[in-house]
Amino acid sequence: MDDPRPAGLPSQRPRVPRAVWHAVGLLAAGAIAWLLWLGYRQPGLVLDLANLSFC
CA-based Rg of the chain, rounded to a whole angstrom? Predict the structure, then answer.
């Protein structure tokens, strides 16, 4: 079968497998959970960040 795209166009990027996206999502969720755990163990840090003013 012939390629339906015009001859001058570059080929499409290879797709990233779904398992890679799942692994990235799990790593991100783990990092967020770890940061939340650190905040839970040091509530003063969370209060300091909540009272931070940018002006």
Answer: 23
- pLDDT at 29 exceeding the cut of 70: yes
pLDDT band at 31 (very low <50, low <70, confident <90, very high): very high
Whole-angstrom distance, CA of residue 39 vs CA of residue 49: 11
CA 45 to chain centre: 24
Spatial contact of 29 and 21, defined as CB atoms under 8 Å apart: no
Question: What one-character DSSP code corresponds to residue 15?
Answer: P
pTM above 0.70, yes or no: no
The token duo for 40 is: 């839970």
d(CA 25, CA 10): 30
